[in-house]
Design brief:
This protein is mainly alpha-helical and 269 residues long. The chain is built from 13 helices and no strands. The two termini are 17 Å apart.
Length: 269
Amino acid sequence: MTGIDSIGSRTEESNKIEPDAPWLWLGAGWRDLWRAPEVSLAYGLIFAAVSGLLTWSLFRLDLQYMLLPMAAGFMLVGPMLAVGLYEISRRIETGEPVTLRTALFVAARSPTQLAFLGALLMLMLLAWVRVAQLIYALFFGLTAFPGFEESITQVFFTAEGLGMLAIGTAVGGAIATAVFAAAVFAVPMLLVRDKDAISAMLESIAAVRRNPWPLLVWGWLVVVLIAVGIATLYIGLIVTFPLVGHATWHAYRHVIDGVAPQPGHEPGS
């Protein structure tokens, strides 16, 4: 039985976990990051560079108003973008070679279903961007979006802007929470299991419902770490994105497979 087979052949009933489990996942993710630093940090560098290029393109096209919705939308597609990091952690656990090629060109057990899930997440991102535009129109009408500097004043220092921010945060948070519950374990599951995307999403939702508080904490930790990475002009993403990806793999292993990381524990040993 290969490494991917042994990890994929687990029970389909999620496990009840302790409230402090997210910190164990972060610790295990941090150790994985430094077990394959060249590959993990290169993955993070590629992601940060693409994020910077996308931001530059939005400014060049005078689409600065898309920055906040796109940044918020990261939570919708993030699990799919991190699939290579799950593969790195899986290979570390099973003792298989880790290279940038194996991280970028992942051989999933359910590739078509993984692609289908990726398409669903992208549709959710596009839907969120459209909803964000409608919320803006609700408060400011069909007037053109001001320049980037003017928009800061408009959003944070006017009654309309604060109202838009409140409604947008509530709606975006609800969408992100639903997508997070469906995708957080579905993506790594399709990496290692021969399973359809709908069943994987339902199992992911069931696992989140079984462990609401630890997963709520984990969701907030992800938001904070990614926000720090974005706030540092994407430089911090070189580290925080791989950290979140590796830690999410250990969250999957803990919640779905019942393999809990231990402080200082060497996966696979």
